[in-house]
Specification:
heterodimer; A: 403 residues; mainly alpha; 16 helices; 71% helix; B: 251 residues; alpha+beta; Alpha-Beta Plaits; 2 domains; two-stranded antiparallel sheet; 7 helices; 28% helix
Chain lengths: 403, 251
């Protein structure tokens, strides 16, 4: 069946394709089992509690949503800023954006206390809630990026790809602003409550999205036995390095600002110099594995000649991104709310103590379902439609000369 | 200049007057108890909407709140059919918090629950509008449209909300609760609508502490309005400018 519609050179690899589908399907089966189990027994079977209300599923979900908006950047650089090399990658970029957003949202919905009320979430809107705005942005993203993909893939509609691409670019900026603001608007919590969250999440999305794109592109090229052009690799890896460095910069500014405020010292001590998993994940995961090591690899003189280095660096950025989300989401809740500044507090409801959280296997299965959803959509999409980048090297050379 | 006829001088008028006085007395005695009771209790029929003429509030006098006493917590659990368990996944609508000033060493004990803010962050962030504030200031969760996203729990500065982590049995029919929804102190709205005090206040009075004063903050004659006017009191996290319905004295 797939052969009939397949336009790709990968079409010959029948068994491998079905193996990939089976692998993704197996993970999805686990995810659905976890969902029905939790739906029946309740969140008592998770590690989440009344102190850590958002856990591992949210780490995966928010990461995928942030990366989804970021992966669209490749298309935006092509359509909005007119770079030919990126334009060749616009369809893949748009498709990945939809696949990753679908994965992230699936996890969010499956983790709801009342997932059966999804229709309520779609029909009752509190317009003062940034969460409600996010739902509008997510749905709009599907519609706009879907339309954008059509303009990219239908020759008659090609002239529309620029204005629709511009709309998609602006929409994705608004979407990530809203996603960052979910945390930025939490006025009472020491770990959040900062306008920096909106631009910082946009920068993170640039890095995570491009890293995800590079990983997928590397695999697709390898699958088709195509060597990626050195000039293309050089430009994309440099862009990734800029995004990763910018992400580190925003992280530094957030914490340096907090260190200036006496009321934030306790939180910063907890996060930056504490004896807990969040400190380890912050320094080792977010900063070293997700930031410094990829930067060193990307700026290595051999990087543009060796796709494996870029692939590995991008993979580390993704790993570091998950660490960052864990630190931001779980770490931000683990630090207790300060109801009475200047007082020590104790109660039966864990006031004044660091909150503990041990994720259960069910949460891990829910979270992995997001990646599996994105993986399955991507695998099928690249099989049945033409998403492999088609580079016009003459134009790339011309573009390179023009600078 | 003739003197006008005085009604008393007319025997016919005298009979009519007697009839009217008697009629008014009968009608008055029939209506008066209802009018009097309405005036005292400000009761309203069940189908009448609450209005913002009332703002329910509470003053907690921490100088009267005993460190070892948890009568308010027990009463809340009984009234609202909470298990009373205190694990990290169990619901606690009211809890006793012991605080100690880090500089002076001064200690206080106080109950902490939903503060029924005028500008509640939980209501602001709720995507579906399930978190809502009644016109009379009581902050509630609409069990029918709560999707269990827990964003309100992230936003509440008082950690006042709990998520129902498991199926429930033996509920109070007046206090519907359910797995997968968020819940918190309702000021015992089912009692307040019957002109009764919240269970915690009643229990505190019964124990003789009288640390909790509940009533209509908008009614200058109410005990709570008089108390907050007479004594210095504070809002917890007053810096957030939420104008809480619960205020604390003695901290």
């Amino acid at each position: 069946m797939a052969n009939n519609v397949c336009l790709d050179r990968a079409c010959g690899k029948h068994s491998q394709f079905w193996t990939l589908l089976a692998l993704g399907g197996l993970v999805m089966l686990g995810t659905l089992s976890a969902f029905f189990y939790l739906e029946h027994h309740g969140h008592i079977e998770t590690g989440m509690n009344n102190q850590i209300v958002w856990g591992l599923p949210h780490v995966f979900a928010v990461f995928l949503i942030v990366a989804a908006s970021g992966v669209l950047n490749v298309a935006s650089i092509g359509s909005v800023f007119g770079k030919k090399m990126y334009k060749a990658r616009a369809p893949l970029s748009g498709m990945l954006a939809l696949a990753m957003l679908a994965g992230g949202l699936a996890v969010l919905v499956l983790d709801l206390g009342r997932p059966d009320r999804l229709i309520v979430a779609m029909t009752y809107y509190n317009f003062k809630s940034i969460f409600a705005w996010n739902m509008i942005f997510y749905n709009g993203f599907f519609a706009i990026v879907g339309l954008y993909l059509i303009t990219l893939m239908d020759h008659k509609l090609k002239p529309w790809s620029k204005p629709v691409g511009l709309l998609a670019f602006l929409w994705r900026l608004a979407l990530t602003t809203a996603t960052g603001s979910i945390f930025g608007f939490l006025v009472a919590r020491a770990g959040y409550n900062s306008a920096l969250y909106a631009p910082m999440f946009i920068i993170y999305s640039f890095a995570y999205g491009l890293a995800a794109f590079l990983v997928v592109q590397s695999v697709m090229y390898k699958w088709n036995n195509i060597a990626v052009d050195e000039r293309i690799l050089a430009r994309m890896k440099n862009l990734l390095a800029v995004f990763v460095a910018a992400g580190l910069y925003f992280t530094a500014v957030l914490h340096l600002t907090n260190l200036y405020f006496a009321k934030q010292w306790e939180f910063e001590r907890f996060l930056l110099a504490g004896d807990n998993v969040y400190t380890t994940l912050f320094w080792l995961g977010q900063v070293v594995v997700g930031g410094i090591v990829p930067l060193l690899m990307l700026f290595n003189s051999n990087a543009s000649k060796n796709p494996a280095i870029v692939f590995l660096a991008a993979l580390l950025v993704l790993v570091g991104g998950h660490a960052q989300m864990y630190v931001t989401i779980v770490g931000g809740q683990a630090f207790p709310l300060d109801l009475f500044p200047g007082y020590a507090e104790t109660s039966s409801f864990f006031d004044g103590v660091m909150h503990s959280y041990t994720p259960s296997i069910w949460e891990m299965m829910l979270g992995l379902g997001g990646i599996a959803t994105a993986f399955l959509i991507t695998t099928v999409a690249v099989r049945v439609l033409k998403f492999l980048p088609q580079d016009d090297f003459k134009e790339i050379e011309l573009e390179a000369k023009e600078g | 200049m003739s003197e006008p006829n005085r009604p008393e001088s007319n025997p016919e008028n005298g009979g009519r007057r007697t009839f009217m006085v008697a009629g008014a007395a009968v009608a008055g005695s029939a209506i008066a108890p209802g009018v009097m009771l309405y005036g005292i209790a400000q009761a309203k029929p069940a189908d009448e909407a609450v209005t913002d003429k009332t703002r329910w509030g509470m003053l907690v006098d921490t100088t009267k709140c005993n460190s070892g006493c948890t009568d308010c917590v027990t009463a809340c659990n009984t009234e609202n059919a909470l298990s009373g368990k205190t694990g990290p996944q169990d619901s606690q609508w009211i809890r006793k918090v012991e605080i100690k000033n880090l500089q002076t060493g001064a200690q206080n004990s106080l109950p902490m629950m939903c503060q029924h803010c005028e500008n509640p962050p939980c209501v602001d962030v709720c995507p579906t509008g399930a978190s809502m504030k009644r016109a009379d200031g009581i902050v509630l969760v609409d069990r029918h449209i709560c999707i269990g996203c827990r964003y309100c729990m992230m936003a509440c500065p008082y950690k006042a909300r709990s998520f129902v982590h498991e199926p429930l049995t033996e509920q109070n029919p007046e206090v519907p609760r359910g797995k997968g929804c968020v819940e918190s102190c309702t000021f015992c709205v089912q009692r307040v609508d019957r002109d009764e005090k919240p269970a915690c206040v009643e229990a505190c009075d019964k124990a003789g502490h009288k640390a909790l004063v509940f009533g209509d903050l908008n009614n200058p004659e109410s005990d709570v309005a008089k108390a907050v006017k007479a004594h210095a009191s504070t809002e917890v996290r007053g810096d957030l400018r939420l104008n809480t319905g619960v205020r604390y004295q003695g901290i």
